[in-house]
Amino acid sequence: MTATEAALNWFQFLEGRVQAAVQAAVAAGNDPNDSLRGLYISDEQAISLAAEPGTPTPGARLEEAVGRLGLDALDSSVLALCVAPELQPRYGRLYAYLQDDVTRRLASPRLAGDLLTGDGVHASDVLSCFEPDSRLSSGGAIRLVTLDATTTLADRPVKVADRLVAFLLGAGELGSATAGARLRRIEAEPALGRVESVAELAPLLAAQTRLPLIVCGPDAGAVVAAAAGRPVLVLGARELEKPDTLADARLAAVLAGGRLCVDGLADLAPAERTALSRAIDESPERLVLLCASRREAAALSDRPALIVDVPHPSFAERERAWSGYTGVANPSEVAAKFRLSIEQIRAAAEVSLITARTRGDGLPVAADLDLGARHASSSRLGELASHLDPAYSWGDLVLPERQLDLLRSISAYLRHRDQVLSEWGYEVTVSRTQGLKVLFAGESGTGKTMAAQVLGAQLGLDLFRVDLATIVSKYIGETEKNLERIFTAADGSNAILFFDEADALFGKRSEVSDSHDRYANIEVAYLLQRMEAYPGAVILATNFRRNIDDAFVRRLDFLIDFPFPEAEDRRRIWRLVLPPAAPLADDVDFDFLAERFKLSGGAIRNCSLAAAFRAADEGSPIEMRHLVRAVAQEYGKQGRLTLETDFDRFHAMVRDVGRRAEADPA
């Protein structure tokens, strides 16, 4: 017998029972002088309706639903009886006639008992199908509707779940639109990889236990789907506060042939975790919980659970996913720089493909892949840190060769860390993390921020600046909270974190003299711990290298000193900050500017800009006098004297300008 024939038999059986019940009711007789006649279905109408052909034919879908819900013959008959008005409206009118109320078009437990009793089936057997722990009720297939306090228990209408009705009608999405639970469906990705994690999860999913299973890591849902061999339907933990949400979600998962999982634990407030614990206890089957990291699993720290860590996709897995989604033959560079999950790579690939097609190209280029990766990198850093535009290149940096070589080493590390650490095995032998900890030390204006911007531009990574001076708090514990917010927001961003004013925290505090020093050391240790756990690059910048304790410096991967520029370097900087499009007078003497004025790169930039505005205001090209006056202005900002030995033949001009300014302050 086919599934369609089996389903048809249920309704043919129901049809016979309904016809017999209608004939019995007609035989009982009705008063023709009844003043309410016309407000209900007449005997003649009932006989005509019962004789009409039109048995519902949901076909194999009813048989499939019965199998997935694990229903026996009686449960199946009850389900067919209750869902019949949804599939064929005439059943609603017949039920109204049998229940002597034109408004009662849904079945009730009493009506089901009357129609299905017989052949060894007692009314109590039928009524037990509506109990809360029955297969139909606990599975979310049916529920009793309370109309008012006067409706007797056995006469309450039975509502079949919208998801189940839509499934039987062949319109599953209609059920999703009307149901209470909002679910996200995850399929097993063909390019997923994670063979070891899938093999570890498969027996744990099949284990007969009530302990919740917590799966932590990127692509946790897809890994569960691969291990279960079926799709995963994900319910947000906050949805559990809504009545009957879990039952509806379980029904959706059963009908989809999938596995129900819960995520969003990180968003739960302590008071909201009660609903999650209650759902774990009340669920007929154990729940699978998805977390981005172990920190999210803290929401269930008060109860035993099985925890499985899903590692981040390896470089080879990311490379394979990039190639599969974009068609690019060799995406190794973007796969190495951006440690994305497979789901993020799919989204990034879509962005890069759209960008390339908008330009008229068939395949994305490296810049398109970087753009897509940045868009796919989830981050809330913009709320807590300043985004720095990577507007500089290597040619804009004026540094000694040793410092440039160290910066290139940082770039090489971030490009090839997966190849060296994971594929070549250095991760095991040297036991180091994937992240990078760097200290930039040097006076203000020597190029620390610019160097970070150059790295961001060359690698195609976002760069965010965090001022540590604004994070450090005098209140115990507040500094750690501020740092935690920064690093939590940075998780998954793949961004370079640039912590400015590092000496605000990394002072020489090895000698503990009071409780504040002790907690200051705790704050430093906490920052180092979070830096080591962060998979990207963290750059600390300080103007005072001598204030940084050597014990902390030894835990960093790179230390780059940014020296004050010498005359030759200053000459290059002067030429760089005066753009080719700027009109320069013939009297501009770069050698004089570089040799006489000992300024940092940042100060030279300020002088160039100030001179340009002076010249524009006068309607003339940038002359030497404009530049010298701008230098004098910068000296004044720094509290330095404008000595004749420095300014030479321009000293009188600078002195006269200063006197006129004092005489006429306005």
Topology:
Layout: H1 3-28, H2 43-51, H3 60-69, H4 73-87, H5 89-98, H6 109-116, H7 123-128, H8 135-138, E1 142-144, E2 158-160, H9 162-169, H10 172-178, E3 183-186, H11 195-206, E4 213-216, H12 220-228, E5 232-236, H13 245-255, E6 259-263, H14 273-282, E7 288-291, E8 306-309, H15 315-326, H16 332-337, H17 342-359, H18 366-376, E9 386-388, H19 401-423, H20 426-429, E10 436-442, H21 448-459, E11 463-467, H22 478-490, E12 496-500, H23 515-533, E13 537-542, H24 550-553, E14 558-562, H25 567-577, H26 590-596, H27 601-618, H28 624-638, H29 644-647, H30 651-663
Parallel strand pairs: 4-7, 4-8, 5-6, 6-7, 10-13, 10-14, 11-12, 12-13
Antiparallel strand pairs: 1-2, 3-5, 9-11
Helix pairs in contact: 1-2, 1-3, 2-5, 4-5, 9-10, 11-12, 15-17, 17-18, 19-21, 22-23, 25-26, 25-27, 27-28
How does this model look, in words?
It is a single chain. The chain is elongated. Residues 1-8, 31-39, 508-519 and 658-666 have low confidence and may be disordered. It is built from 30 helices and 14 strands. The strands form three sheets. Strands 3-5-6-7-4-8 form a six-stranded mixed β-sheet. Strands 9-11-12-13-10-14 form a six-stranded mixed β-sheet, covered by helices on one side. A two-stranded antiparallel ribbon has the order 1-2. The chain starts with a helix and ends with a helix. It has 666 residues and is α/β, with parallel strands linked by helices. Helix content is 50%, strand content 9%. Helix 15 (315-326) packs parallel to helix 17 (342-359) and helix 22 runs parallel beside helix 23. The protein has five domains: 3-177, no CATH class; 180-309, Rossmann fold (3-Layer(aba) Sandwich); 315-377, Helicase, Ruva Protein, domain 3, CATH 1.10.8; 394-562, P-loop containing nucleotide triphosphate hydrolases (Rossmann fold, 3-Layer(aba) Sandwich), CATH 3.40.50; 567-663, Helicase, Ruva Protein, domain 3 (Orthogonal Bundle). Helix 22 (478-490) links the parallel strand 11 and strand 12.
